[in-house]
Design goal:
Elements lengths: L4 H31 L9 H23 L3 H33 L7 H25 L2 E3 L2 E3 L4 H16 L21 H13 L3 H26 L7 H11 L7 H10 L17 H7 L1 H17 L6 H21 L1 H21 L5 H14 L1 H7 L13 E3 L5 H11 L5 H7 L1 H9 L1 H14 L7 H19 E3 L6 H5 L2 H20 L6 H33 L4 H19 L6 E2 L7 H8 L18 H15 L10 H7 L3 E5 L11 H4 L4 E2 L3 E5 L3
Helix pairs in contact: 1-2, 1-3, 1-6, 1-7, 2-6, 2-7, 2-11, 2-12, 4-7, 4-8, 5-6, 5-7, 5-25, 6-7, 7-8, 7-10, 7-11, 8-22, 10-11, 11-12, 11-13, 12-13, 12-14, 13-20, 19-22, 20-22, 24-25
């Protein structure tokens, strides 16, 4: 029977996205109403809807982490929240009906605001469709192709499956006894795991559906940021739609990528890989929505602390909410939270210099509470897996690299020493290509301040410090935990958000008053916008089609992935969630195994993935034993049962690319399989 996995993913991802609403939107709405954060109760229904998702993102992850050890308490809490939400809906509907009756028949009003709401809903729906179709598997006959984003989603799908088995989750790449606690910012994976617990939807589809909510949360934050950071009071709906449109605009990456693909290298799987990336909004939402959600939690915490109120009780509520928001952000993305913490430090320093001492008390108290609440998270993040993993510290000082320029200097001029000097001198060009239109926006905004056309309010000052913090960290700090410079990628999210807000204001004012910018400036901005939109479109298409057009020339890879997913889906119906399924951890198909397995592995990746928790010294003997099963010497393919018993392995799975597959006398061909097809064979082993 031919399974249409694309249809399964589209419907399953849609269902997962809908089921995430009770865990994100609904708690945010109830939290906003019960605490009156940002004067929630006085807002119009549309603004309350926009506030709800960011508020939910700010508080739900940390509550799940703290209460996850007590599942009954957690589900009772969500049950109470859902009942409260239903009561609020009925009550608000009754109030609205009574107001309409008192007002009597009136002429139709508010058609333009209503049309903007409809446009906003259409944009959110369009994003949901784009996200699901971009991340879902693409099936062509008996061939199956994952999106390029599966490179990251495979790891987080395995973590989501681990969270389904228990909170706090254990390292799924080092499964067995004793359990090894997972060391990662996995809070969003915990939220996704609740969908599986509630409905039985696979963890992988839960992660797929979660990409939808990353975009919805970011869309919701734009009008909030415009009001409280960019100072937009009039025409907020119009400027918001402009901000939504700017999410499709990235930097000028398309130009160097086309140059490289034509003269130097084949097409990149992701356009961002040409450089130390400042990731486009669409790309970061498809790859790593949890980083965007951490930014949202941080921004909400900051805005809530700055809410003007005379009530001491409200101020106390705001401080408590902000502490929860910062604690959630810490578990959603340590990289984004660290950047925001540096911003807060600089913000308080500037506030002291300006004499704004009223800013200090709420931030100090909220920071202390957030640190206290985050202690379990920090203990997890600082647990085993550091020096023994081969890494030396989390961060180090280094000038931001510009690989394309360095290759050209080395090749054409033979410059191989002190390349950091060239990187430093070329930082403006580096940022010009990465930011494009948004760098122009920053320059025009700064010019307006110097000319006295724009007042440097507290909000404006805070926004500039956010931008400066990103540039400071992104230019001179790099992460050491991975070969890629993750901190250099993610630290720019807060600057990108501020620049997007300023860009929306600039375009709105420019369209309303064309004389506010010179014709030359408009022409430059238009070209940058066009290149930015084309770059995003190119990126979306490449992420989807790269595995089909540039990887699977003979079609065998697609057939192999189809067979592997079919095998794992059959295993899912036969095995308990806590079963350990072992595959070859050194295979080129590692991402596919992680993506579809849904079970832990004794050695899930090279070195047992100890960067995610555990000690390399404990991994070495089991890694050697497991490797011997898949890479035996000719004529020495020993039965796997002794290894399986030693490390608690329940099922062992071989693919036709594994060396053991090619030995007729091996266990792959001498024992009865639990299931088998042309490319995959799975066996029970051990006890």
């Amino acid at each position: 029977m031919l399974h249409n996995f694309t249809v399964i993913d589209v419907f399953g991802g849609t269902a997962a996205a809908l089921l995430l609403a009770p865990f994100v939107f609904v708690p945010g709405y109830v939290a906003g109403w019960s605490t009156n954060i940002l004067e929630f109760r006085r807002e119009r229904p549309a603004m309350r809807v926009l506030l709800s998702t960011p508020l939910g993102v700010a508080v739900v992850p940390i509550l799940i982490f703290l209460l996850g050890r007590y599942p009954r308490v957690l589900w009772l809490l969500f049950g109470a929240v859902w009942i409260a939400f239903a009561v609020l809906l009925v009550w608000e509907r009754g109030l609205a009906t009574s107001r309409e009756m008192r007002a009597g028949p009136t002429a139709s009003r508010g058609e333009r605001p209503r049309s903007r709401v409809q446009i906003g809903l259409a944009i959110a729906l369009g994003w949901a469709m784009l996200a699901i179709f971009s991340v879902a598997d693409l099936q062509l006959g008996h061939r199956l192709y994952s999106s390029v984003t599966a490179f990251d989603h495979s790891v987080r799908s395995a973590m989501t499956a681990a969270a389904v088995r228990g909170i706090p989750p254990t390292n799924p790449f080092f499964a067995g006894q004793p359990p090894v606690m997972l060391r990662y910012h996995y809070f969003w994976m915990m939220v996704c795991s609740l969908v599986t617990r509630l409905s039985g939807i696979t963890p992988r589809l839960g992660m797929l559906g979660s990409t939808v909510w990353g975009g919805i949360a970011l869309l919701s934050l734009i009008p909030i940021g415009l009001r409280y950071l960019a100072g937009v009071r009039e025409g907020l709906g119009r400027v918001t739609l402009t901000g939504f449109a700017l999410l499709t605009v990235t930097g000028l990456d398309l130009l160097p990528v086309l140059y490289i693909s034509h003269f130097q290298a084949p097409v990149y799987a992701d356009m961002e890989w040409w450089n130390v990336q400042i990731t486009s909004w669409v790309d970061v939402l498809l790859w790593t929505p949890h980083h965007v959600l951490a930014l949202i939690a941080c921004v909400m915490g900051f805005l809530v602390l700055r809410q003007a109120t005379r009530s001491r009780w409200q101020r106390a509520i705001n401080v408590g909410f902000a502490a929860l928001a910062f604690a959630s952000a810490c578990g959603l993305s340590t990289l984004v939270t660290l950047t925001f913490a540096v911003f807060l430090f600089l913000w308080l320093a500037v506030a002291a210099g300006r004499g704004w001492w009223d800013e200090w008390p709420p931030f100090l108290v909220a920071g202390a509470l957030a640190l206290l609440i985050s202690l379990p998270t920090l203990r997890m993040l600082l647990g085993p897996g550091g020096s023994e993993s081969g890494y030396h510290g989390f961060f180090g000082l280094a000038v931001r690299q510009f690989p394309l320029a360095m290759r050209m200097l080395t090749r054409h001029f033979g410059w191989r020493k002190h390349l950091w000097i060239a990187n430093l001198l070329l930082l403006p060009l580096n940022y010009f290509l990465e930011l494009g239109f948004y760098l122009l926006v920053a320059g025009l905004r700064l010019r307006a301040i110097r000319a006295g056309k724009l007042r440097l309010t507290r909000e404006e000052t805070a926004a500039w410090i956010m931008v400066a913090t990103s540039f400071l960290i992104g230019s001179f700090v790099r992460s050491n935990t991975l070969a890629t410079n993750d901190i250099g990628w993610r630290c720019f999210l807060q600057a990108q958000f501020v620049l997007l807000l300023w860009g929306a204001v600039l375009l709105d004012r420019g369209w309303a008053r064309p004389t506010s910018l010179t014709p030359r400036c408009w022409r430059v901005a238009s070209v940058m916008l066009l290149v930015g939109v084309l770059g995003t479109a190119y990126q979306v298409v490449t992420l989807r089609l790269y595995p089909v057009e540039w990887v699977d020339a003979d079609g065998l890879a697609g057939k192999r992935i189809y067979a592997l997913r079919a095998a794992y889906e059959r295993l899912a119906t036969q095995l308990p969630r806590d079963a350990i399924v072992q595959y070859n951890p050194e295979t080129d198909m590692q991402e596919s195994h992680l993506f579809y397995s849904g079970h832990g592995a004794a050695v899930g990746m090279p070195r047992c993935g100890v960067v995610f928790g555990g000690r390399a010294s404990l991994c070495e003997p089991r890694a050697a034993a497991v490797e011997s099963l898949f890479h035996p010497s000719p004529g020495r393919a020993a039965p796997p049962d002794s290894v399986c018993r030693a490390y608690g392995i329940d099922v062992i799975l071989a693919v036709d690319t594994d060396p053991v597959w090619k030995q007729p006398e091996s266990w792959v061909w001498t024992r009865p399989p639990l299931l088998a097809n042309s490319y995959v064979r799975a066996f029970r082993c051990g006890d």
